[in-house]
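As a representative case, we now present a protein record of this kind.
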Amino acid sequence: MKIGELAQRTGLAASRIRFYERIGLLQTVEREANGYRSYPDEAVVMLNLITTAQQAGFSLDELRALLPASLEQWQHGSLVNAIKRKIDDIEALQQQLAQSKAHLAEVLTQVEAKPEDIDCATNAKRVLSQMGLGSGKRPALADNKTESARKKARRH
């Protein structure tokens, strides 16, 4: 099939399909004598896999390492491990987001508790001081982010 039909069947722009081909994610393309691209039916499946995996949080580099040239070459163990790693990454991100949300909720509570007899700038200093942020110490969120990055580096 030609790129126009493939674009229509996948809902992707032809430029995106060419991009995936150029970066090596879509390898099931052949060139006809006139230079036109010709795609097998498998290209629809591969493009749907790519877009679904991107929506699930996989980066293009992760996909490049994971996707085989054709579906028959897929390595079950590699797929399972990649999905497990992505689930771990999502769980770590969820934990980090929950901590960020709790931290921001506490900051909001403190900011909203501004005494009527002080201005906003003084209140900001009061809140930062109470939360240990005005002393030059790094906030806990930065420490959590650093720890998350260390854990991820150890896995890879």
User: Anything to note?
Assistant: Residues 76-112 form the longest helix (37 residues). The chain is about 65% helix and 5% strand. The longest strand covers residues 30-31. Confidence is low (pLDDT under 50) at residues 141-146.
